Amino acid sequence: MKSTTQLVVSMTINGTMHTASVDPWTTLVELLRYRLGQGFKSVKQWCGEGECGSCTVLLDGKLVNSCLYPAARADGKSIRTVEGMTSGSELHPLQEAFIEFGAVQCGFCTCGMLMTAQSLLEANPDPTVEDIRRAISGNLCRCTGYKQVEAAIQSAAMALREAPLRRTAHLP
After folding, report:
1. Number of structural domains in the chain
2. Structural domain of residue 103, as residue ranges?
3. Torsion angle, CA of 134/11/82/113, rounded to 10 degrees?
4. Is 17 inside a domain boundary?
5. Are residues 80 and 14 in the same domain?
6. What percent of the chain has pLDDT over 90?
7. Lowest CB count within 10 Å: 9, 38, 115, 133, which one?
8. Residue 79 sits in the same domain as residue 97
9. pTM of the prediction?
10. Residue 67 belongs to some domain of the structure
11. Is 98 helix (H, G, I), strand (E, B) or coil?
12. Would residue 172 count as lying in a domain?
């Protein structure tokens, strides 16, 4: 029998503080996608077993399958979702590369792949194909065959490495 106890949790999501009351059995994906105002629609609920990666978020800088993570444990934590990748209306280089290389097809795995790729590139700005394959191994995609995803991540890695050079090249 489920308890009616409500827990109050506060967390920073993409730089903004959010507070909500949750049941002890509420998962982080349920809280993010369905219970917080407009919701964070990039966080998909697919398998519910931590196998597909579509619900992947960064929690205090670490990849988490939010379908398995209790929302109450996120109290006081910092969460990043795909909605936090953009700066205004400008897409993140990873998002641009996913579009350019056709790594976005049905879209169900895309957001989890983007969060996984962002985590990888933050830890390793110059990953090998093997590094990329290992990083995305927890994300299932039934459309792309992964080659487009690998190419997109390699391209974004190069663009991100070159970005500081382009900015400093224009200095007087």
Report:
1. 2
2. 93-165
3. 20
4. yes
5. yes
6. 76
7. 38
8. no
9. 0.90
10. yes
11. helix
12. no
Structure tokens at 144: 């792309």
Q: How far apart are the C-alpha atoms of 28 and 73, rounded to whole Å?
A: 9
pLDDT, one tens digit per residue, over 97-141 is: 999 999 998 888 999 999 999 999 999 999 999 999 999 999 998
Residue 164: its pLDDT value, please? 64
DSSP secondary structure letter of residue 146: S
Helix H or strand E segment including 77 = none
Residue 170 is assigned to a structural domain of this protein? no
| CA nearest neighbour of 101 among 59, 73, 143, 61 | 143
Q: Which two tokens stand for residue 16?
A: 């903004």
Question: How far is it, in rounded angstroms, from Cα 43 to Cα 82?
Answer: 8
pLDDT computed for residue 144 by the predictor: 76
Residue 106 burial (10 A CB sphere; 0-12, 13-18, 19+): exposed
Distance from C-alpha of 162 to C-alpha of 156, rounded to nearest angstrom: 10
Residue 163: is it exposed, middle or buried by C-beta count within 10 angstroms (0-12/13-18/19+)? Answer: exposed
Are 79 and 108 contained in the same domain? no
Secondary structure class of 132 (helix, strand, coil):
helix
One-letter amino acid at 108 equals F
Give the CA dihedral 29, 32, 34, 40, nearest 10 degrees: -120
